[in-house]
C-alpha cells in the first residue's frame, strides 16, 4: 500500500473514532467552478447585511492562502439530528442549537485529530475550520466525496440526510484523494423550494440569503422587515423547513453526542414561557448554546415579531 493511502486511511479511521460521520479528502487547489457562482451571489446581494461574505474573496476560493503550503483539505461531517424535538411549536429553534455550541465541540475534535496526525506521521502543519472562516465547506465536502449539494444548497448524504455539521482540516500533507461526488440525487424533487415560507430557495441551487429565515432571525441585526410577517413559520432562531421536508432525511438517525443533548427545560418550554422569558432564564437555558449569538435582546425581537 502506498504511503499516501496509508496516511489517508489512518486519518479516516481516527476521524471515525472521534465520532465523525464521514471523512473525505480533496486536493487543496483553486475552486475554479465556484468563483463565478460566488461572485454572482454577492452581486445579487443575496448575502443581505452579511458584509463579511464580501471579505477574503480569494481565500474563500483557495485554501493555500489560508494555510501556507496546503496540500490537502480533509472534510468531515458530524451528526446533530436529535431524538426529540420541542413540544411547543409556537416558538421554534433550529435543531442544531438544542445543545452546546457546535463550534467549540467540533473544533476540539479537529485539534485532537491534527495532534494524532502529528504523533503518527510527524510534523504536519494545518488549521481547523468549523463554519467560522472563509472556507466554502460544502464545495470541499462535495469534492471530497461526502455528498451532493441539494436545491437548498445544503450537503446531502444518501445514508444520513442533511442534519449534520461540516468541518475542515487544511494541512500541508499530500494524501490520497477521494473522487468528487458527481451525481445529484435530488432529481425533479422540489419539496424544499415549495416548502420555504419566504421563497428564499431559487432555481439553479441558489438561496437568497437575505430572505432566509435563519438569516432574518440570527444574522440580521435590524428589525425584521414587515414583509415577512406571518411568513416565518414560528421560527425564532434558525429554520429547519427545507431539511424537514427533504425525503433523504428519512434516513437521519439520532446523534450520540452527549454535549448536543437539549439544554435543561428547553424542549418543555411553553408558549407562555417563551413570551415571558427573562434574561436570567435565557442565560440558564442557553448557557453554552449557539443561541447566545443572537443575545437576549435578539431573541426577544424574534418572539415579538412572531406574536399574533
From TrEMBL:
Q: Which cofactor does it need?
A: [4Fe-4S] cluster; cob(II)alamin
Q: Which residues bind [4Fe-4S] cluster 1?
A: 186, 189, 192, 246
Q: What is its EC number?
A: 1.17.99.6
Major localisation: cytoplasm
List the catalytic activities from the record: epoxyqueuosine(34) in tRNA + AH2 = queuosine(34) in tRNA + A + H2O
User: Biological process (GO) annotations?
Assistant: tRNA queuosine(34) biosynthetic process
Positions of the catalytic residues? 131 (proton donor)
Q: What pathway, per the record?
A: tRNA modification; tRNA-queuosine biosynthesis
Which Gene Ontology CC terms are recorded?
cytoplasm
Give the 4Fe-4S ferredoxin-type domain ranges. Answer: 177-206
What Gene3D superfamilies would the database entry show?
A: 3.30.70.20
Record Pfam families: Fer4_16, QueG_DUF1730
Specify the domain of life of the species encoding this protein: Bacteria
Q: Which residues bind [4Fe-4S] cluster 2?
A: 196, 212, 239, 242
Q: What does this protein do?
A: Catalyzes the conversion of epoxyqueuosine (oQ) to queuosine (Q), which is a hypermodified base found in the wobble positions of tRNA(Asp), tRNA(Asn), tRNA(His) and tRNA(Tyr).
Family to which this protein belongs: Belongs to the QueG family.
Q: Subunit structure, briefly?
A: Monomer.
**Name of protein:** Epoxyqueuosine reductase
* Species this protein is from: Tenacibaculum holothuriorum
What's the source species' lineage?
A: Bacteria, Pseudomonadati, Bacteroidota, Flavobacteriia, Flavobacteriales
Amino acid at each position: 500500500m502506498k504511503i499516501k493511502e496509508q496516511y489517508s486511511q489512518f486519518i479516516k479511521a481516527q476521524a471515525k473514532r472521534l465520532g465523525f460521520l464521514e471523512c473525505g479528502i480533496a486536493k487543496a487547489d483553486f475552486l475554479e467552478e465556484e468563483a463565478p457562482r460566488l461572485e454572482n451571489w454577492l452581486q445579487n446581494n443575496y448575502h443581505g447585511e452579511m458584509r463579511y461574505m464580501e471579505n477574503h474573496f480569494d481565500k474563500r476560493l483557495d485554501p493555500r492562502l489560508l494555510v501556507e503550503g496546503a496540500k490537502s483539505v480533509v472534510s468531515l461531517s458530524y451528526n446533530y439530528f436529535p431524538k426529540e424535538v420541542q413540544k411547543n411549536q409556537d416558538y421554534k429553534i433550529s435543531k442544531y442549537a438544542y445543545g452546546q455550541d457546535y463550534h467549540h465541540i467540533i473544533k476540539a475534535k479537529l485539534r485532537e485529530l491534527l495532534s494524532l496526525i502529528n504523533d503518527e506521521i510527524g510534523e504536519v502543519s494545518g488549521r481547523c475550520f468549523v463554519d467560522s472562516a472563509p472556507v466554502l465547506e460544502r464545495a470541499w465536502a462535495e469534492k471530497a466525496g461526502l455528498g451532493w449539494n441539494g436545491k437548498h444548497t445544503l450537503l446531502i448524504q444518501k445514508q444520513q440526510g442533511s442534519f449534520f455539521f461540516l468541518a475542515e482540516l487544511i494541512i500541508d500533507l499530500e494524501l490520497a484523494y477521494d473522487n468528487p461526488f458527481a451525481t445529484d440525487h435530488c432529481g425533479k424533487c422540489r419539496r424544499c423550494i415549495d416548502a420555504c415560507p419566504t421563497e428564499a430557495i431559487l432555481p439553479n441551487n441558489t438561496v437568497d440569503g437575505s430572505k432566509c429565515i435563519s438569516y432574518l432571525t440570527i444574522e440580521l441585526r435590524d428589525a425584521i422587515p414587515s414583509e415577512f410577517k406571518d411568513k416565518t413559520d414560528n421560527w425564532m432562531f434558525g429554520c429547519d423547513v427545507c431539511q424537514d421536508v427533504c425525503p433523504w432525511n428519512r434516513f437521519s438517525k439520532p446523534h450520540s453526542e452527549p454535549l448536543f443533548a437539549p439544554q435543561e427545560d428547553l424542549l418543555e418550554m411553553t408558549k407562555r414561557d417563551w413570551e415571558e422569558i427573562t434574561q436570567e432564564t435565557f442565560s440558564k437555558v442557553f448557557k453554552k448554546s449557539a443561541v447566545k449569538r443572537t443575545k437576549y435582546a435578539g431573541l426577544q425581537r424574534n418572539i415579538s415579531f412572531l406574536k399574533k
